[in-house]
Design a protein that fits this description.
The complex is a heterodimer. Chain A is an all-alpha fold. Chain A is built from eleven helices and no strands. The two termini of chain A are about 20 Å apart. The longest helix of chain B is centred in the middle third of the chain and has 39 residues. The chains are: A mainly alpha, B mainly alpha.
């Protein structure tokens, strides 16, 4: 631990602190008992920030603070589900393509490349607009995952191609290890450090896509997410009525969360390359 | 000889990308349980009360034709590829019936393309310029400051940057209108004046996010190149800093940035859709939003097909420029 602190760069430290803070809000503070923030007229309308309501209330009498905690929780959960599916799928397809070679590799790579360049938002718009009304959080996460596997599988394939020819892999082959065992014990450890960085990246991308769809009114209407919270505030004219305590917190939270995750990713990548360099 | 082979391979990938993308958007909606025709009939019924069953049946079948939902799946697919992809004919728009979808998109597309191309190129040039300066002289305070600013803007989603700019410049400072309007009638002068006024905020928000990434990536690229032996050698030969910057560092790091530009176009397009919607800028993004609100599936499908074709083509063009700037490429 002390060694890690000495070696970690400034970006990584700041990124870890911000991300831990959001995890604390979304998975610890979130579970403190409180009234359902979604219900209308739980409290007075348009209350100013006070000790009881740190960010005041909305025009529908919802507590902004708890609405925000719920949003952070849900956005992070969606991000994690998508990132998990995307990373696992990407690693699997990438390893499969990299190790099989031949026509399977070619077909997989053409499909992967297509998914890398295709503009994802329009297709997500089409799919979510068809599911409008019947959409749930899990369905939303599955749809977002359609575009989350392509980039990692491309990277993992490149990694597999370079590792495949190294001596220790040949040694493993010759000592009679099977394909599955070689992949599990020799290659996965390499892929894992990289997967962690991809996982964070995919989380960030998924939260961004969900909130973009929310602004179009395409995120499930019963899902309290950062994007939906911003969108509801916009729809109810929080800007015109200058209720900054309502629209401000989700915007600031999104900005800080994204900067934090980005610092975490780039800091972690720098940390890895520095570790490898020694 | 080898270039023709590269060209053929690249064009093949281009065609495959479009084909896979279009096939995807054709089949996926058909796997969903929701039926656009029944949705539409439900809406018509709720508006005009009960309908004669016979009349409803004829409405249903004519809507099936309009939506391209008639015949077997294979036949539908064939006619979708033939009409939609080759002739850009997506049937009539349902929100402004019976104007064809293609015609409406044609009036909106130039605004989006103009905004997007201009901001993408400018962001690339500005970002790489600043990034080069910052990477080449990376120990200066100004370089570190530029990178810090870029890090704070780049990861934030496009629509949030747009929203914040809108609140500050349109709402609080009142410098710009909250919603863009472009007046096409009343002469070229009015048109240009309103066009510029409507485009400034969307363009600035796209530029801010866009150049952020180029600053960050170019700084790290040129920072690495600047420490290579051949740059050190050039320094020892006493070459002026300007020359080293341009012919040694820039030449070697810009190549990666061209490939990155091709890869980024899809994301930039998504960003410009969101920015348009926030500012009400009259482009394809706003059109898609309107189509979603009114469940105009022909329009949504048309906009998305055209954007896939446009993005794939733009990526192809950037990829074909690539060999022109990298003389080391041998097509093998």
């Amino acid at each position: 631990m002390r060694k890690f602190l000495r070696n970690a760069n400034g970006r990584l430290k700041v990124g870890i602190v911000i991300t831990l803070f959001f995890l604390f809000l979304g998975f610890v503070v979130y579970y403190i008992p409180h009234a359902n923030p979604f219900g209308y007229s739980t409290y007075g309308r348009r209350l100013s920030p006070s000790w009881e309501h740190p960010f005041g209330t909305t025009s529908m009498g919802q507590d902004v603070f708890w609405l925000l905690m719920e949003s952070i929780h849900n956005s992070l959960v969606i991000g994690f589900i998508v990132a998990l599916i995307g990373t696992v799928g990407g690693v699997f397809i990438g390893l499969l393509a990299g190790f099989s070679g031949g026509w399977l590799d070619r077909v997989l790579m053409v499909v992967t490349d297509t998914f890398v360049v295709i503009p994802s938002l329009p297709i997500l718009i089409l799919m979510t607009s068809l599911m409008r009304g019947s959409s749930t959080v899990l369905l939303m996460a599955l749809v977002l995952a359609i575009f989350a596997w392509a980039w990692p599988s491309r990277q993992i394939r490149a990694m597999a191609l370079s590792i495949k020819e190294r001596d220790f892999i040949h040694t493993a082959w010759f000592s009679g290890e099977g394909t599955v065992q070689v992949i599990a014990t020799e290659i996965l450890p390499y892929a894992l450090t990289w997967s962690l960085s991809n996982f964070m990246n995919a989380t960030l991308a998924a939260i961004a896509s969900e909130s973009s769809l929310a602004v179009l009114g395409l995120s499930p209407a019963n899902l309290i997410s950062l994007g939906n919270m911003i969108q509801w505030a916009r729809e109810r004219n929080a800007i015109f009525t200058q209720q900054w305590n309502w629209i401000g917190p989700p915007i600031i939270a999104t900005v800080v969360l994204f900067i934090g995750l980005f610092l975490l990713i780039t800091g972690y990548n720098d940390y890895l390359s520095m570790k490898r360099g020694r | 000889m080898k270039f023709t082979k590269y060209l053929a391979m690249r064009i093949l990938t281009w065609a495959l990308t479009i084909w896979i993308g279009v096939t995807f958007i054709f089949f996926v909606p058909r796997m969903f349980p929701s039926d656009p025709v029944e949705n539409m009939i439900g809406r018509i019924q709720s508006r005009s009360g009960q309908m004669d069953p016979l009349e409803m049946e004829s409405l249903r079948s004519s809507l099936r034709v309009q939506f391209g939902l008639e015949g077997s799946l294979l036949k539908q697919y064939g006619s979708f590829l033939q009409n939609g992809l080759l002739r850009l004919d997506f049937g009539p728009s349902l929100m402004s019936f019976p104007t064809p979808v293609g015609d409406i998109i044609k009036t909106y597309l130039p605004y989006t393309l103009g905004l997007m191309l201009m901001t993408t190129l400018m962001a690339w040039l500005i970002g790489n310029f600043i990034g080069l300066q910052a990477g080449f002289r990376k120990h200066r305070t100004s370089s570190k400051l530029m990178e810090a600013i870029a890090i704070c803007i780049y990861p934030v989603p496009y629509f949030i940057v747009a929203l914040v700019l809108q609140i500050i410049f349109a709402f609080i400072l009142n410098w710009f209108p909250l919603q863009s309007t472009i007046i096409t009638m009343g002469g070229l002068g009015t048109f240009l004046r309103t066009l510029v006024r409507a485009s400034i905020l969307p363009a600035v928000s796209l530029l801010l996010v866009g150049s952020g990434w180029w600053i960050i990536s170019m700084k790290s690229l040129s920072g690495t190149v600047a420490e290579e032996d051949f740059v050190l050698y050039a320094r020892y030969r006493g070459l002026p800093e300007r020359k080293i910057g341009q012919s040694y560092v820039l030449r070697n790091s810009i190549i990666t940035q061209v490939t990155a530009l091709a890869m980024s176009l899809g994301g930039v397009f998504s960003g410009s859709i969101m920015t348009e919607i926030i500012f009400g800028y009259p482009g394809v993004g706003t059109l898609i939003q309107k189509a979603i609100l009114q469940s105009d599936y022909n329009m949504i499908l048309g906009c998305i097909t055209i954007s896939i074709v446009a993005i794939a083509t733009a990526t192809l063009i950037v990829d074909l420029i690539y060999p022109l700037i990298d003389p080391r490429i041998r097509y093998s």
